[in-house]
């Protein structure tokens, strides 16, 4: 992952900012709409961590600033409920100088978006592997009542050395029973990866995350979302109205991609079925049109 503000010498480390008397911020790993992520050291336990900082916008009213803090704390609560090898771990939540920070597991590796930008699209077997791991992560989150709502390549990390797939950034996650922070007339998320029912302001459930996974798989295979357009209005129209056209590169796993990109949530492929189909593809090189039964014997590629 590209970094800025590296602290590779002793003076930089000596001058690094320490928050909550414990976490030394050393390198900026990335910046997004939900905050800045730092590589840091937990000085108490002597381990590397990632620290997510929510910048303070001085133009915000007190109510708006409170809403930002609530969003950060909601991400922490959502993640803290989850324990899964393909979901980033929350270690701590702290405040320093009235600014909230989330202390996370440090994943040494690029995002899927960075990997695609650097190396180009992945092949169908790698896309299926990534898809299976993300489906496992989503099932665990959904079982805990947590919806991600912003699944996209930038929020999927690939650990160096192991290629472990890790779902991160639950910054706009919705926890069952929690009050939504989306105000009327505003939208949070990434439109190219957002399900049509969310675009239309209708119900949001686990199926919406599965639509996002379908779009993500298309991007992994072809290099861009099938819903990318020149304007936000064009993206909205593509997601809600236009014919869904998966890229030709999705051909080997097309039944899964089509099933995930079904506009009607009740007809969308569910996580269990999608995983069985992708596993069948990885075993045999052929994606079944319908999910195999769980007891089906494996058939190897010729």
Observed structural traits:
alpha+beta; Protein_kinase_ATP_BS; Prot_kinase_dom; disordered C terminus; 6-stranded antiparallel beta sheet; disordered N terminus; 2 domains; Phosphorylase Kinase, domain 1; 34% helix; 302 residues; 9 helices; two-stranded antiparallel sheet; Transferase(Phosphotransferase), domain 1
- Look up the CATH topology of the largest domain: Transferase(Phosphotransferase), domain 1
Task: Give the % helix.
Answer: 25-40%
Report the biggest beta sheet as strand number plus sense, adding barrel if it closes.
6 strands, antiparallel
Instruction: Name the overall outline.
Output: globular
Question: Quick check: average pLDDT?
Answer: 84
Euclidean distance between termini CA atoms: 38 Å
Radius of gyration: 20 Å
For CATH, the homologous superfamily of the largest domain is named as Transferase(Phosphotransferase) domain 1
CATH domain class of the largest domain: Mainly Alpha
Unreliable residue runs: 1-12, 175-186, 297-302
- SSE class: alpha+beta
Count of β-strands: 10
Provide a brief overview of the structure.
GO terms for molecular function: ATP binding; protein serine/threonine kinase activity. This protein has helices at residues 10-15, 62-80, 112-119, 124-143, 196-199, 206-222, 232-240, 254-260, 271-284, and strands at residues 18-19, 23-32, 35-42, 47-53, 90-96, 99-105, 146-147, 156-158, 165-167, 174-175.
